[in-house]
Amino acid sequence: MFLFFRRSVVLQIQFECLYDGMCEVNFNIKNVCKCCRFNKCIQMGMNKNKVQKPRGKYSKRKELMQSNTPSPRASCIIHSSNQTFVREVEYDCNEFLDQFIHMEYMTEKRRIILTGSNPLLILRDPIQGYSVDKSYKIVPFNFKQFNACVRNVCLLSFDYTTSMPYYNTFNEEDKYTIFRGVFFLTCILDSSFFTYKSGLYKEGYYAGIEGMVSSIYDDKYGWETEGNITREMKLTLLKPIYKNIFESLILPMANLNMEAWEFASFKGMCISNICSYDFSIDGKKKGKKFDNLFIKGLTSGRYKNDEEMSVRVGQIILLMTNLHVIYASMVEFFTRLDVFNLIELDSVIKALLNRTPLCDLDRL
């Protein structure tokens, strides 16, 4: 904290919080909003007047700031003497990981606004912490409701994707690849984490998006016939996928007692890993950079000791081993629904399944 505070005072940086100074600042989340981090320093007793005058490299950097050159380390909006700059941030491993944690916190808040029974509760505590909304009305899984909430998932995926570190450095096709990965992984991973955190897994239930539940170890709930899709077709095509998700993701999350910030890190790693197969050459290089930053961020003092770190990080990485199979199975399932015209899928899913080029989207 001290070096950050001293650097900010010496360079006379004025940070601006995008959320009215309500961001959480703690050991695990300290680099998301530098405005709130700076204010926290003041609250803890640090004094701007006692910071030494700049010498050496800091003196040169101050001159650059005063000549309207923005700091490459600023993560918020920065105001110099007469100009405002918004530029791509260069993240260290902790700032990088903190951004993904913040993104996941905000995703859950937005989900509460879209589907929660009391969305105004987020105004009481708009950003701090992560809590799974348990106010969903639990209903059996059905494709009609799934189609109805696809656009909500699309909105959450868009906000998540465009908030990613270095997003603006990817080309258009790679951005599309990221969005596709985020969309399908949001359906898989967010549902898995919700099932674990809500405790529904203890009853043998898998909770899909917006609280649509299917029983895993019997056929009593969520497997009803829907139009052209019979009960037998659901059990044959979909149940093996759900059971794999349940046993390969949800139960290990529960056994690990996965924390929300660990899930946010895990989700980011999964997105990077899945998308890397379809990235351009330049995108693959950025994907490797993402992988390195994730690992460095997870192993940079966030756990009590090295033993805990090695065990938990190892288990988190192991969770990714079956993800490619689950992801491919889920995409194949929806492709079959579309090809055989079993249900009318939302156009968003159709475009993502068919990998419709960006230049052709306006023809849909």
Verbal overview:
This protein has 364 residues and is mainly alpha-helical. The chain has two domains: 1-50, Erythroid Transcription Factor GATA-1, Chain A; 93-363, Retinoid X Receptor. It has 14 helices and six strands. The protein has helices at residues 2-10, 34-43, 57-66, 93-115, 143-148, 150-162, 172-198, 231-237, 239-256, 260-275, 281-298, 306-318, 323-339, 347-353; strands at 14-16, 77-79, 84-85, 139-140, 205-207, 212-215. α4 (93-115) packs antiparallel against α6 (150-162) and α4 (93-115) crosses α10 (260-275). 33% of the residues are buried.
Strand order of the main beta sheet, please?
1-2-3
Task: Assign the structural class, choosing from mainly alpha, mainly beta, alpha/beta, alpha+beta, or little secondary structure.
Answer: mainly alpha
Low-confidence stretches: 64-87
Query: CATH superfamily of the largest domain, please?
Result: Retinoid X Receptor
Instruction: Domain count, please report it.
Output: 2
Cα-based radius of gyration, to the nearest Å: 23 Å
Q: Secondary-structure element order, as H and E?
A: HEHHEEHEHHHEEHHHHHHH
Instruction: Please name the CATH architecture of the largest domain.
Output: Orthogonal Bundle
Instruction: Provide the helix percentage.
Output: 40-55%
Average pLDDT value?
Answer: 81
The rounded distance between the terminal residues' Cα atoms is: 51 Å
Total strand count, please? 6
Helix tally?
14
Strand content: under 5%
Largest sheet properties: 3 strands, antiparallel
User: Given this structure, which CATH class of the largest domain is correct?
Assistant: Mainly Alpha
CATH topology name of the largest domain, in short, is Retinoid X Receptor
InterPro entries: NHR-like_dom_sf, Nucl_hrmn_rcpt_lig-bd, Znf_hrmn_rcpt, Znf_NHR/GATA
Pfam family, one: zf-C4
Family: Belongs to the nuclear hormone receptor family.
Domain Nuclear receptor: 1-53
